[in-house]
Design a protein that fits this description.
- The structure is a single chain.
- Helices cover 58% and strands 9% of the residues.
- It is an alpha/beta fold.
- Helix 3 links the parallel strand 3 and strand 4.
- Helix 6 packs parallel to helix 8 and helix 9 packs antiparallel against helix 10.
- It is globular and about 65 Å long.
């Protein structure tokens, strides 16, 4: 069986992969499909290398390059032939935690036509509220109704963000009230500013501006948006610095307290946005902040969107 698993909710993606793996038998082989050393030949060997005495193989491919951007079909010809007649005892799973695959690609369509495509979107408001209540009960969290409502509100139907916040709240000594939620939890606004940076590194100005306008409707002014963006750039610099110290992924997770998903997205962004550029952008944000406070000849929003355009040119 072949699967393509993608969507907006990394926690659900992880659960789905675990569900498939737990219901299958055999050796697990994992590949990073975005790594420059990723080998189609090694992937095919994993898919087709079952012996007579094997129970099968589960092959996991994270962020395969050929489902993200256009590539030469000849370079993956063997894989395209395989997906037409996959081995019955091999589970081949293509997945991404970062963004959806590019469904417009010819190669995506060829593979998807022979695969089960699973797209895990955000829950609607009613189902998300039920999910929040269910997880709180499951974890036996001692939380007030007001704090539970606030947690639901700040996560804005983002189940992955909710679960990351839940893990932090589980460590809180005593009854959790709204003050504890405000102090300890990450709000969806922070995720939005992170998505804005990702949109810019992917050269998607229209998405970045759309996120900026959504944030603007949720904050008091453009200065609130600038603050959120600056915080995310500082976070990226922090991850880049720890990486330069050759800290392991586990050490970085423990030091920063972020979840796997956010670190994965940060590392994806840092492939494009280097430390030096982050420092330069932080300085420009600081300069923009001063300009907005001293010169009102141009609207604040226009100046900020010009900054986004300049940001895009830097990556």
């Amino acid at each position: 069986m072949i699967y393509i698993i993608q969507g907006q909710e990394p926690c659900f993606i992880k659960e789905k992969i675990e569900e498939i793996v737990s219901s299958s038998e055999g050796e697990i082989r994992s590949f990073d499909g975005s790594d420059k050393n990723f080998s189609i030949a090694e992937l095919m060997e994993a898919c087709e290398g079952n012996s007579l005495f094997s129970n099968g193989t589960i092959v996991l491919v994270d962020q395969p390059f050929f489902l993200v951007k256009k590539c030469d079909e000849k370079s993956i010809a063997e894989l395209l032939e395989y997906v037409k007649r996959p081995l019955y005892d091999t589970q081949l799973i293509f997945y991404t935690y970062v963004d959806n695959f590019n469904s417009k690609l010819k190669i995506y369509k060829q593979i998807a036509s022979n695969a089960q495509v699973i797209d895990l979107k955000h829950l609607d408001y009613k189902n998300f509220s039920n999910y929040v209540r269910s997880r709180i009960n499951e974890e036996k969290l001692d939380i007030t109704s007001d704090a539970s409502y606030l947690l639901n509100t700040i996560c804005k139907r983002d189940a992955t963000l909710f679960n990351a916040n839940l893990q932090i709240l589980k460590l809180y000594p005593g009854k959790i009230d709204p003050k504890a939620v405000n102090k300890l939890c990450t709000a969806s606004d922070d995720n939005d500013s992170f998505e804005m940076i990702n949109a810019l590194t992917n050269k998607d100005l229209s998405k970045a501006i759309s996120i900026e306008r959504r944030l603007l409707s949720q904050t008091d002014s453009i200065f609130g948006v600038i603050g959120l963006l600056a915080n995310q750039l500082r976070f990226l610099y922090q991850i880049a610095y720890y990486d330069s110290l050759n800290m392991s992924r586990k050490q970085i997770l423990e030091t920063t307290g972020v979840n796997e998903y956010r670190l994965s997205k940060a590392n994806e962004t840092l492939k494009v946005l280097k430390k030096e550029k982050i420092i330069e952008l932080l300085k420009k944000l600081s300069d923009l902040d001063v300009t907005l406070k001293t010169d009102n000849s141009i609207s604040e929003q226009t100046r900020f969107e010009v900054f986004l355009l300049e940001f895009l040119k830097k990556v």
